[in-house]
Design brief:
Distance between the termini: 19 Å
Order of helices and strands: HEEEHHEHEEHEHEHEEHHEEHHEEH
Bound molecules: 4'-deoxy-4'-aminopyridoxal-5'-phosphate
CATH class of the largest domain: Alpha Beta
Largest sheet: 7 strands, mixed
Strand order of the largest sheet: 4-10-9-8-7-5-6
Strand content: 5-15%
Structural class: alpha/beta
Number of strands: 14
Shape: globular
Number of domains: 2
Helix content: 25-40%
CATH superfamily of the largest domain: Type I PLP-dependent aspartate aminotransferase-like (Major domain)
Length: 446
C-alpha cells in the first residue's frame, strides 16, 4: 500500500536522482555489492518503523528484507534503541572490559547449545575467520570443507562456489571451485574443498579420503543463501557422526539462522550441536555485532593467547547494549515471540501458495515461517515440491523471480533480490493480509 492511495503503483523518481548523485562519490552508489542492481535503481530510504520502510519518493513498504535479516524486532525497536541511547553518554570504546560484554556472553552461553565460551566481534565475515583459524589451530590440519551454494562472508579464505553459474560448476558430485570476485587470491582457497550439500555419502567419501588432513566442515545448517533449504532428515546427525569419527571440527554458520529460526538457532531447533558456531544479524536487531560460540577446549585456545582473535570495535558499548536488549526481548516469556512470528510466516507461505495455485503460477514456497524463499519453476515446468541443494535452486526461473519482486515492490512489499522473505516480531496479521493482497495482484501480472 502506498501513501498516494492503494491503487497507485510506486514511482522512484527521487531515488533515481539520488542514485545518480551518489554514484559520483560512492563507488556504484552503494556501500555493499549486494545492494547493486535494485530496480529501477537501488532505492534510497528515509526511515524505518516496525515492519515498514519509507523511501525518498514517499513510498511505504511492508519490509521483508529487514536489513538482510537482522531487524528481527522490526525497524527502530524501542527496547533496543532505548538501551543504546542509555550508553551514549558513557563512552563508546574502552579497549578494556565493561560489564555489558559479560551480560552478553552470559546470555549467549545460556541460549546457544554449543556455547560454553564466546567471543564477540562486529560482523559475520570476520567471526567466520576466527572459527576457521581455531579449527586449524586445534587440529593441526589445513583443509576446510565447505558446500556449494553456502555463503560465509566475503573474505578470500572462504569466498568460493557461492552462486556458481551452472555451466561452470562442474559435476554435481565433485563441484569445480568457482571464485566469484575479480582480484581474489586462488591460493587462499587452495585449502578449501567444495562439496555438494545435503548428501551424507559425499561427505563420507570425502572424509574417507581426506579426513586426516581436514580441520573443519563449515555449513549453513539451514541453507539460507540459496533459497531456504532445510537439511534432509538425518543429514545433520550424519555430518556430526562423520566429523566425530574423523576428529574434524564442525562449524555451523548461524549468521542467518541464529536467533531467527528459534532462540537456540538451527542447532537448538534441529537438535544437532556443532563444535563452533557463528552468529550475527538477528542477535543485534540491526546493530553491528557478531559472535563466535563454541566448545570450551577449542575456545580456550583464544584464552591462552596461542590463537589470535582481535578487533578494535569488539564489544563497543552501542553494539553490546543492542545485543543484550535484543536477546532479552527475544527471550521474554520463554521465546514466545518465535511462535507468533512463525505462525504469521506460515500463514503468509500458505497464502502465497494458494494465490499461485489459483492463477496457475509454478511458485515454490520453501523454508520456515521466520525465513522462507519464493521462486518459480523454469521452462513451463510445474513447481517442484521442494529443492534440496544449490543446483536445484539455481535451475529456477531467475527472470520471472525478478519480475515478481519488482511487481511486489511496486505494490509496497519489499523482498530480498534472492526471493528470501524475513519475518519480524513487528509484522502483524493485518500486514500479512495486506501482503497477500499485493502478492495476488503481482502473481496475476507476471
Ligand atoms: N554467513 C552467512 C550465512 C551470511 O548470510 C552472511 C551475510 N549475509 C555472512 C556469513 C557474512 O556476514 P557479514 O555480512 O556480517 O560479514
Amino acid at each position: 500500500m502506498l501513501d498516494s492511495g492503494p491503487a497507485a503503483l510506486a514511482t522512484y523518481r527521487r531515488s533515481e536522482t539520488l542514485y545518480r548523485e551518489a554514484s559520483e562519490s560512492l563507488a556504484g552508489g552503494v556501500s555493499s555489492n549486494f545492494r547493486l542492481g535494485g530496480t529501477p535503481v537501488p532505492l534510497t530510504f528515509e526511515r524505518g518503523e516496525g515492519a515498514r520502510l519509507y523511501d525518498v519518493d514517499g513510498n511505504r513498504y511492508l519490509d521483508y528484507v529487514l536489513g538482510m535479516g537482522p531487524c528481527i524486532l522490526g525497524h527502530a525497536p524501542p527496547a533496543v534503541t532505548a538501551a543504546v541511547a542509555a550508553t551514549l553518554g558513557r563512552g563508546q570504546l574502552f579497549a578494556g572490559q565493561h560489564h555489558g560484554e559479560v551480560e552478553l556472553a552470559e546470555r549467549l552461553c545460556a541460549l546457544v547449545p554449543c556455547a560454553e565460551r564466546v567471543r564477540v566481534g562486529s560482523s559475520g565475515s570476520e567471526m567466520v575467520q576466527a572459527a576457521l583459524r581455531l579449527a586449524r589451530a586445534a587440529t593441526g590440519r589445513r583443509l576446510v570443507a565447505k558446500f556449494e551454494g553456502h555463503y560465509h562472508g566475503w573474505f578470500d579464505t572462504i569466498l568460493v562456489s557461492v552462486q556458481p553459474p551452472l555451466d561452470r560448476a562442474g559435476p554435481a558430485t565433485a563441484p569445480t571451485k568457482h571464485l566469484p570476485s575479480a582480484g581474489q587470491s586462488a591460493a587462499a582457497v587452495e585449502d578449501v574443498a567444495v562439496l555438494p550439500w545435503n548428501d551424507a555419502g559425499a561427505l563420507e567419501a570425502f572424509l574417507g579420503a581426506r579426513g586426516t588432513d581436514t580441520a573443519a566442515v563449515i555449513m549453513e545448517p539451514v541453507l539460507c543463501n540459496s533459497g531456504v533449504i532445510p537439511p534432509r532428515p538425518g543429514y545433520l546427525e550424519a555430518v556430526r557422526r562423520l566429523c566425530d569419527a574423523h576428529g574434524v571440527v564442525l562449524i555451523f554458520d548461524e549468521v542467518i539462522t541464529g536467533f531467527r529460526v528459534g532462540l537456540g538457532g538451527a542447532q537448538g531447533r534441529l537438535g544437532v550441536t556443532p563444535d563452533l558456531a557463528v552468529f550475527a544479524k538477528a542477535m543485534g536487531a540491526g546493530f553491528p555485532v557478531a559472535a563466535l560460540a563454541g566448545r570450551r577446549d577449542l575456545m580456550e585456545r583464544l584464552a591462552d593467547g596461542s590463537t589470535l582473535h582481535g578487533g578494535t570495535y569488539n564489544t563497543n558499548l552501542v553494539a553490546t547494549a543492542a545485543a543484550v536488549a535484543a536477546l532479552d526481548e527475544l527471550s521474554r516469556d520463554g521465546g514466545a515471540v518465535y511462535g507468533a512470528m512463525e505462525a504469521r510466516g506460515e500463514r503468509l507461505m500458505a497464502g502465497l501458495r494458494a494465490a499461485a495455485l489459483a492463477s496457475g503460477a509454478p511458485l515454490l514456497v520453501q523454508g520456515m515461517g521466520t525465513v522462507f524463499n519464493t521462486a518459480f519453476a523454469a521452462g513451463g515446468a510445474e513447481a517442484p515440491r521442494a529443492v534440496t541443494d544449490y543446483r536445484g535452486y539455481a535451475a529456477l526461473d531467475a527472470a520471472r523471480q525478478r519480475a515478481f519482486l519488482r511487481a511486489l515492490q511496486d505494490r509496497g512489499v519489499r523482498v530480498t533480490a534472492r526471493g528470501t522473505w524475513f519475518l519480524s516480531a513487528a509484522h502483524s496479521d493485518a500486514d500479512v493480509d495486506e501482503t497477500l493482497g499485493a502478492a495476488t495482484a503481482a502473481i496475476a501480472i507476471i
